[in-house]
Design a protein that fits this description.
CATH topology of the largest domain: Thrombin, subunit H
Number of strands: 14
Shape: globular
Strand content: 25-35%
CATH architecture of the largest domain: Beta Barrel
Strand order of the largest sheet: 9-10-11-14-13-12
CATH class of the largest domain: Mainly Beta
Radius of gyration: 16 Å
Distance between the termini: 22 Å
CATH superfamily of the largest domain: Trypsin-like serine proteases
Largest sheet: 6 strands, antiparallel, barrel
Number of helices: 4
Number of domains: 2
Length: about 250
């Protein structure tokens, strides 16, 4: 586990950017809860702190059979931190996910020790109204800035994307408003899975979904086309109850 995780860590220590399409550095209010999760098979995802010792991410980021660590980008060299427990939503279906069908793609992770004070847990929310095409959201993650370039991941960036198609409570598709998915544009890519999707509610940035998948332009393979998110509305109660249980568990 440690060797593979360290290899990913080395890829992410160079100055780099997340999200493809020229996304800008994430603002402090969107970046302050973001963290990187690395797996023993060289994979990495983004997560968001929702308590001092609890993270929210996508269930497909943390399948069984692997070990995971948190990357701490604090002062000095990045360090690997232990993850004590992983809870995937009981309705998550990896086969459905692999077949590009909507599923409960959310997971809650218990850390072995509390996060440093500079990490500010994000608030969970739900859109103030049913999501409609054209509604705007902010996606923030640590993924690659260029597909296939591992060293282009590791610094938080964000993008404003808009809902397209027929948004629902199982899945929402987001797109760069400038390209509409027809040509390469802003969007999630490798490493952005599990990243929080923010909405502005009552003057606060609250998490209303997590990144589950992406496509290239015109539904091709890759990134810079559609960004698929799993809304939290159906799963918020489970997330909050699980977070309370894990955060209260003995360390």
């Amino acid at each position: 586990m440690l060797r593979s995780a360290l290899a990913v860590l080395l890829l992410l220590t160079s100055p780099a950017f997340a999200l493809v399409g020229g996304a800008q550095p994430a603002s402090e209010r969107h970046a302050r809860s973001l963290l990187v999760i690395v797996g023993s098979r060289g994979n990495f995802c983004t997560g968001a702190a929702i308590a001092r010792d609890v993270l929210l991410t996508a269930a497909h980021c943390v399948p069984a059979g692997m070990e995971y660590r948190l990357v701490d980008y604090g002062a000095g060299a990045p360090q690997l931190k232990a993850i004590a427990r992983i809870e995937r939503h009981p309705q998550f279906d990896m086969q459905a996910f692999a077949a590009h069908r909507a599923t409960a793609d959310v997971a809650v992770l218990k850390l072995a020790e509390p996060l440093p004070e500079r990490i500010v847990p994000a608030s969970l929310g739900a859109p103030a109204r049913p999501v409609a095409p054209g509604d705007r959201f902010v996606v923030a993650g640590y993924g690659v800035g260029m597909r296939g370039e591992g060293k282009s991941g590791g610094i938080a960036r964000s993008a404003v994307l808009v809902a397209t198609g027929k948004p629902g409570t199982l899945q929402i598709r987001l797109v760069d408003p400038a390209t509409r998915g027809e040509t390469p544009g802003l969007g999630a890519c490798t490493g952005d899975s599990g990243a929080p999707v923010f909405d502005e509610i009552g003057g606060r940035a609250v998490v209303i979904g997590v990144v589950s998948w992406s496509t290239g332009p015109k539904l091709s393979d890759g990134c810079g086309g559609l960004t698929g998110i799993t809304p939290l509305a159906r799963y918020r109660t489970w997330i909050e109850e699980t977070a309370r249980e894990l955060s209260a568990a003995p360390r």
